[in-house]
């Protein structure tokens, strides 16, 4: 069964069409990566699914129409992590993560003991148990991304929408964050939809990929099906070699211009 | 996502509402009740302590901060009640203040004249200053939260400018302060209406021109303030006879304070304080940006509209009874934030208490520094407040991100 299903989704921003009828089907419990060159509409698609952009067409989450869901109800189904989350520097980690409980509170409600326990468990889950009293401004890049994930986890939504979760992280922290997301997906039974600009990383972690170009889905399927040298060359305008990592997942490399005969190397 | 609509509540008929008891106790009661319920549980998880300092008792910190601020406010009220030409005795005045509380009856030992000075001259003025300081400071904290901009206050969204122009028009063309309107001075009524109209204009323009985002609202507020300010300058220029009167109003004063003004302000104050305080958690969520607030199940535009309307009601009420008093709404929330952190559930009630204490003391200074002459209170708040603000910024600069 599809956790997220989109059919013919069209979005226009400032009257400029960004998405021209995108289809998407994400199996429950899977990781779906949305790829594409800059400006292809990856973030726009994610924001439409999150319910924060008006769209035409159909987007269903757990069998329900996103556009018709009340904001609070939607927030219990979908957690969204933007590319650059705003972290008020003076807020503490604990305060921030507890804001993830908002969709579970009444309009003027206050966190109950249970809500605080959920938030604390989310902190624990992301190895942040000792950080509750720390200021967000005092956290490093990798820690900040974990804090934001803890906030999303505290929301207890079944579907996690991640917009470029590894931007601005170094190699080790990219791996750490993606490992964590994958682990959460497995242990908490989450469905993950993420945009990723790094094709090889997407191939490593995602079960299924959608390649978005100019607001249209031009390919979908497993990493091996989607990431061919010819397709990447065509849509990214890049010279690449695609290797196999030995476990059936493609690795995409950029290559230098072909050396002229007789030149060095 | 465009949203029209008017943030301003209907303009009330003047002279209604005679809430018994002093406002200080009413407001403080409401607020501290709210807080002990809210911050108690919130406290034991984070300890609300920053920078990794291990607290001795985690639960206590917000409570201690609030109690300290309440004590500071009460002390300020006592000191301000004592200060002045009549020379009231300390013990008797303290007893007389306690005597005002329900179910407390004390013999004060004050002469009838002293009691009269306290009841009819000092107390209304002190209570009004507390009220106005509390309203301005909390409104400032609310504006800063709504716009996610540290420089926001009633001056940036058109409230002060609107109130100033309306009051100026009444003073110059409308017969001046002697003119009454249904038993209430025409100047307060005009300031109230003008303040709300200024915010409404800014809001409508900001929403029409931009997409209702915070930047376009602030820019619209700046444009409206500047436009209205020029009209006001022209009116003042063309009527030099009234300039002094207009100026004394533009810098604020509690000279006219009496129980009538207090009674006038209390109903609106209670409404706006309740609405703003109850939206503390929403302001925390808004701090994450509109997109994230929306994906957390909040309607950011609606929350902004509600809090903006309530804060503007507070500003209009304060301006109506005291004129334009700058700096309180800008500075007090920043000072409080340095001590209590950015969480609005502590920030908003703390702003009430600290704002009240600050303005009571500023007014004491205004009426005693050059006695028998009085300084405009806006001059005192800025003259004392600005250096104090710089000191606070320097002392707590470790908290800058």
UniProtKB/TrEMBL annotation, chain A:
Provide the GO MF annotations for this entry: ATP binding
User: What range(s) does the ABC transporter domain occupy?
Assistant: 4-239
The source's superkingdom equals Bacteria
Q: Which Pfam families match?
A: ABC_tran (PF00005)
The family database entries (InterPro entries) matched by this protein are listed as:
AAA+_ATPase, ABC_transporter-like_ATP-bd, ABC_transporter-like_CS, P-loop_NTPase
Q: Which UniProt keywords apply?
A: ATP-binding, Nucleotide-binding, Translocase, Transport
**Key word ATP-binding present:** yes
PANTHER family, per the entry: HEMIN IMPORT ATP-BINDING PROTEIN HMUV
Name of the protein? ABC transporter ATP-binding protein
Query: What lineage does the source organism belong to?
Result: Bacteria, Bacillati, Actinomycetota, Actinomycetes, Catenulisporales
């Amino acid at each position: 069964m599809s956790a997220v299903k989109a059919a013919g989704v069209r979005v226009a921003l400032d009257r400029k069409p960004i998405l021209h009828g995108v289809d998407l089907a994400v199996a429950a419990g899977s990781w779906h990566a949305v790829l594409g060159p800059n400006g292809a509409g990856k973030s726009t698609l994610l924001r439409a699914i999150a319910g924060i952009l008006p769209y035409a067409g159909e987007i269903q989450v757990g069998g329900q129409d996103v556009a018709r869901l009340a904001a609070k109800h939607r927030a219990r189904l979908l957690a969204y992590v933007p590319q650059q989350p705003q972290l008020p520097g003076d807020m503490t980690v604990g305060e921030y993560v507890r804001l993830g409980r908002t969709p579970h509170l009444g309009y003027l409600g206050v966190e109950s003991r249970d809500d605080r326990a959920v938030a604390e468990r989310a902190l624990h889950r992301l190895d942040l148990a000792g950080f509750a009293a720390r200021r967000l401004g005092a956290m490093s890049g990798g820690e900040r991304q974990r804090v934001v994930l803890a906030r999303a986890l505290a929301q207890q939504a079944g579907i996690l929408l991640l917009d470029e979760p590894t931007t601005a992280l170094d190699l080790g922290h990219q791996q750490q964050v993606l490992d964590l997301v994958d682990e959460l997906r497995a242990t908490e039974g989450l469905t993950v939809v993420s945009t990723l600009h790094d094709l090889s990383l997407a191939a490593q972690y995602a079960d299924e990929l959608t390649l978005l170009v100019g607001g249209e889905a031009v390919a979908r399927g497993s990493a091996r099906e989607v990431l061919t040298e010819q397709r990447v060359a065509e849509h990214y305008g890049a010279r690449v070699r695609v290797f196999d990592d030995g476990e059936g997942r493609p690795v995409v490399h950029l290559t230098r211009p072909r050396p002229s005969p007789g030149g060095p190397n | 996502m465009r949203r029209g609509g008017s943030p301003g509540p209907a303009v009330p008929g003047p002279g209604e509402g005679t809430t018994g008891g002093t406002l200080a106790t009413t407001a403080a009661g409401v607020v501290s009740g709210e807080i002990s319920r809210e911050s108690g549980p919130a406290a034991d998880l984070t300890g609300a302590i920053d920078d990794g300092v291990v607290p001795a008792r985690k639960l206590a910190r917000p409570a201690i901060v609030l109690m300290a601020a309440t004590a500071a406010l009460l002390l300020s009220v006592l000191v301000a009640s004592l200060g002045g030409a009549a020379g009231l005795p300390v013990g008797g005045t303290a007893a007389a203040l306690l005597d005002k509380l329900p179910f407390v009856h004390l013999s004060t030992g004050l002469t009838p004249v002293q009691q009269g000075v306290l009841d009819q001259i000092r107390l209304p003025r002190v209570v009004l200053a507390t009220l106005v300081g509390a309203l301005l400071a909390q409104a400032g904290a609310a504006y800063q939260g709504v716009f996610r901009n540290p420089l926001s206050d009633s001056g940036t969204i058109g409230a002060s400018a609107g109130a100033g122009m309306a009051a100026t028009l009444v003073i110059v063309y409308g017969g001046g302060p002697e003119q009454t309107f249904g038993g209430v001075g025409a100047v307060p009524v005009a300031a109230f209406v003008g303040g709300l109209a200024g915010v409404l204009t800014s809001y409508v323009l900001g929403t029409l021109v931009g997409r209702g985002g915070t930047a376009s609202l602030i820019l619209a507020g700046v444009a409206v303030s500047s436009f209205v300010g020029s009209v006001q300058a022209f009116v003042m220029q063309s009527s030099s006879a009234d300039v002094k009167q207009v100026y004394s109003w533009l810098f604020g004063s509690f000279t006219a304070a009496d129980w009538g003004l207090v009674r006038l302000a209390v109903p609106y104050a209670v409404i706006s304080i309740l609405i703003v305080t109850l939206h503390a958690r929403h302001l925390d969520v808004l701090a994450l940006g509109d997109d994230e607030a929306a994906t957390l199940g909040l309607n950011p535009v609606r929350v902004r509209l509600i809090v903006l309307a309530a804060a503007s009601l507070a500003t209009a009420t304060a301006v109506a009874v005291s004129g334009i008093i700058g700096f309180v709404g800008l500075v007090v929330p920043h000072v409080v934030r340095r001590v209590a952190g950015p969480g609005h559930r502590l920030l908003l009630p703390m702003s009430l208490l600290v704002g009240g204490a600050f303005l009571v003391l500023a007014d004491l200074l205004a009426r005693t520094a050059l006695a028998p002459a009085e300084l405009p209170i806006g001059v005192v708040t800025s003259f004392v407040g600005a250096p104090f603000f710089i000191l606070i910024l320097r002392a707590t600069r470790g908290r800058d991100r």
